[in-house]
Every structure is written in structure tokens, then in C-alpha cells.
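Sorry to interrupt, but I need a hand with the structure work. Could you add the entry underneath, on a fresh line?
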Amino acid sequence: MGNSGSAVKVCTDHQGGINWLSLSPDGQRLLTGSEDGTARLWSTADSQCHGHFQGHESYITFCHLENEAAFTCSADHTIRKWDVVTGQCLAIYRGHTSIVNRILVAKDYLFSGSYDRTARCWSVDKEKQIQEFRGHRNCVLTLAHYSSRDVLEEEEEEEEEEERVSRDLLVTGSTDCTVKVWWVSSGRCYQTLLGHTGAVLCLILDAPNRELFSGSTDYTIRTWNIVTGEQLKVFKEHQGSVICLELVNRHLYSGSADRTVKCWLVDTGERIQTYKAHKHSVSTLKYHAGILFTGSGDACARAFNSKSGVLQKIFRGHKFIINCIQIHNELLYTASHDGTLRIWDIRGICKRNKRRLKKERSVQGRSSQKGSLSRLFNNKVGCMVQQENGE
């Protein structure tokens, strides 16, 4: 294991815990949303704060950053849109009657989930509520979005003629133990996915493979067919709530309150690796270049070799739980409830991992070549034996 890392920069501008950290699609900016009721915009080029968004009347629960605009949601029941250049509030979306805990931006839509038991859809540009999704018996914690064009065959689309105007669907996970799939155009519930016996905390969607993964306080991860609603597999080895999920190359990584991350083969349901060393719940995780980065309630971030499970580095310095991590240009960004954004240089472990992967590929290549020569030799011997036997 490598030496414990020290941050190359510590940003202490917030006056309260940071609840979320979002990276812009172009990688040029980061957005932090805080318990102090403000959001801050950071440049990934110089790690300086270039924007301070003030206006919410309570703490910010979640934030989302596009290239041109920033979005924040709050315990004040509202969502706000901000100009990333001027810092001006461009829109306030009002309608929820309780804490808004999650937002999602897709196309021209803004989706939100709230403790008021509803999810809502808004026009990004007009501050106008387009749709309300009502049916959960408790708060909506997590959201996902996809288009039926990504998953439905033509004949299946014909069956949903009334929904052909808009093929967008919203997926919601709730503390009522259910996952629901909704048609955005009508607000109609398309599927209710039943099986969990605890709150649904996280969702990961794999639309091309028609699969949805949900993690719950019932200690399980479940896989669903998002077209039929059929439950496909149940992953049962965790001994605590499943808090976060990451899907990479048909490998599913799950972080849990049992202080571990597990890696599963999606196609078989087999658990192939367990990543230990955390002293508290695993609150967030991210895969990058063969390395699994985790954030934990023990105030540390960690880097594991994703294949072997070996702990490569511990990043110490935070005082409270790490709520979110992002990676850009071989820098690791960690946001914590201690109010700080810390930036860590991960070039060393990325470089070592690349060398290791290159070496493994080289060994596999030589092994494959030896296998080919061996098969060629055996084939020649077989032919000679056949000739000698007059076959």
C-alpha cells in the first residue's frame, strides 16, 4: 500500500458542510452545495472559487452543474438555476411542499424528488412545472431518466401509442420500498417495481441492456428489466444498507453501511471482489482507470486496485464524512461535511496502475502466444500420427 496522501489544496470558503459536488460536462468547473445555504463554483484549472450563489433560505441538499448553468435544490422547498458566469439567479422553481433532496437535468427537462412524496418535471427555461408524479407513499430519494427509444422495440412502442408524443420516462426510488417508472408526458405510472423491504437509496440505469439496479436499506441490490418490470437478480451479501452504486463494463460496485464495497459480475450475479479497510459506512465511490476510489464516514478517501482489491492509498485530512467525490485530470476532489473541498494529486497511483495493466496485458499476450504455438505443435503432431496410422 502507498503512503497516506496529503491534499495539494484545501478550500475552506464554505461555512457549513458540503452535501454535494458536481463536475461540469466539459470538466472546466466544479459546483459545491452546502449546509450554509450557498453554492460555490470552482475552476478545475486553478482550483479557485469563481462564483458564490446566494439566495436559498435553507441548506442546499444537492446540486447539478451544466456547462452554462448551475442548479441547486434546498430544504427551503425550491430549486434554483444560476448563470455560471455572472452568478445571477436565472430561475426559481416553486411547487414542492417539503425538502427537495434530488434533482436531475435531462434534455430540456429538470426533474426533482422531494420529501413531499412527489417527483416533478419542470421546463428548464420557463420556471414552469410540466408534470407531477404522485403515487409514492413516502419521500422520493433518488431519480433516473431514459427514453423508451433506448429500450423498446418498434412493436412494443406501438402498444404505447398514447405515449408516443414523448418517449421520456422517469424512474423514482422511495423510502416506501418501491421503485416506480413514469411516463413524463402524462405523469402516468408505467411500472411499480416491488421486492425491496427497505428504503431505496440509490439507482443506476443501464438503458441499452434494459436493466435498472437499485440499492436499499434491506441490505440488497436488485436488478430489474425496465420494460417488463421483472426482477432479474438479487445481490444479497452486504450486511448493511446499500448506499451507493457504480456500473462500469458490466461490473457493478456497491458501497455499504457494512464498511465494504463489493464488485459483482452483472451477467452472472457473482460477487468477485470485496474492498475492505473502511472504518465506517462507504458513502460514495467512483471508478477511474482501473482504480476504485471511495469516500467514507470515517473521513478518509481510499484508492483500491479494482481487480485485486488491494488498498493502494489512503487520503487523510477531512474531519467528518466525505459526501461526494469527483475526478478530473488525475486530481481527486473530495467534499465533506466538515465544510472543506480537498484536492489530491493521484498521478502517482494512476501511473503505477497503468504500468501494472500494461505488464498484465504483456504477460497475457505472451501466454496467449505460447498457447497458440502449443496448439500449432499439437496439431502438427496429430497430423503426423494420423499419417503414420494411414488415416
Observations:
- Confidence is low (pLDDT under 50) at residues 157-165, 368-391.
- DSSP finds two helices and 32 strands in the chain.
